[in-house]
Amino acid sequence: MLENLSERLQNIFSGLKSKGRLTESDINDAMREIRLALLEADVNFKVVKAFIARTKERCLTAEVMDSLTPAQNVVKIVLDELTVLLGTSSSKLVLSSRIPNVIMLVGLQGSGKTTAAAKLAWRLKQQNHSPLLVACDVYRPAAADQLQTLGGEIGVRVYRGDGRDPVKIAREGVQDAIDHLRDVVIIDTAGRLHVDEDMMAEAEAIKAAVKPDQILMVVDAMTGQDIVNVVQAFAERVDFDGVIMSKMDGDARGGGALSVREVTGKPIKFISSGEKPDSLEEFHPDRMAKRILGMGDVVSLIESAVRVQQEEEAMEAEEAERVARGNLTFDDFITMNRQIQKMGGVSKLISALPGGDKAMGSGQVDEKALDRMEVIINSMTKAERAKPEILNGSRRARIAKGAGTTVQEVNQVIKKFNETKKMVRKMTSQMEQNQARKGKKGKKGSKKSRGLRIPGMGAGMPGMGGMSMSDLRELQKMMEQK
Asked: N or C: the chain end with fewer CB closer than 10 Å?
């Protein structure tokens, strides 16, 4: 999503950076190109007009035109205005002291409300809340069944009621939460293919019946210019508090995501970019703006690393020492694979780095490759996983047969494994040399400094060599202050 816009803007800025000084004509040409890029991304034309006017006015000041690095100043201004367009600051979901808190989801049919309800329930459950899902969509076939299935997968209770009267179901759902000591109620309402009076009247009736603490509108990020009319209609009738932007991993132009805040004044609270329960993330306007301009999202990457590292505290110092020295086993390889999956997969990890989206190009990372690799490794014996050097021809043939694959693929896995070991050893050596130059002492790979383990990256985050938990948190604070 938004990759084309990101590429267009980066090309425009590359052209500006090639010039020592900028003229007013250069600024006008750049603004024209940015306008076209935004319109092609399906951003609302009124939003584009206001954005370009503000940006151009700031770019034509003497402070920018007479500076030694005018192109960098233009990029900074565009970044600032893009952040303002997306919402300036993050808007978190704040629960009131009321028990139970009631959160009502609204939106058109197909926007992803039911899935978003389950993801929000999972997120709240991870924060030690006890959510209850209430199925108030009585019109779409199997809508309640879908919510029931999703609730079962994440271990959250679902209230379905009589399956006929949405207002009654919502009211009874709140009472059910009280009876079963649930502190948050998430109401999944019905939608339509387009805005109509019946849908709005029902949403208003449910709102009046349960008096929700928060109303969140679920918006399909793949919706184009029509998103403006939809969000305006919901804002007028139910006065929602924030937006959940779903399907951010789609391949549409995604300009709707850039229009919502400007049109309604309502903040985007969450974005969803996958089908898994943990794919609902808090929305940070500044980080999204940097991603669009090809600056990456290192802060989110660090947060993911910290979260994974907190979950992986069982690794002993001796094992960390062995891994840091590059003495990997295939069991370590599987551990690395699972850590990457917890961080959202290879694609998410790469795209979060500065220039990552551009480096990936139009090609897609094969996320299943690591899974296939794990199947092959699981077909090995315990001794073979611990001592890969014993894998001769006959053993490889047996492993291929057990994994349902070919000997060639087994050989490829072993080759990648050996390359990773070499890279880990090389990075460890470089880190030790750097420490020696700085006069630092201490054993590399101790429990204090082991860092997150990533395939091909040794005992540290990519480019962050062997950082400890405190290092990651300190870097996170530094990034957020910029």
From this structure: C
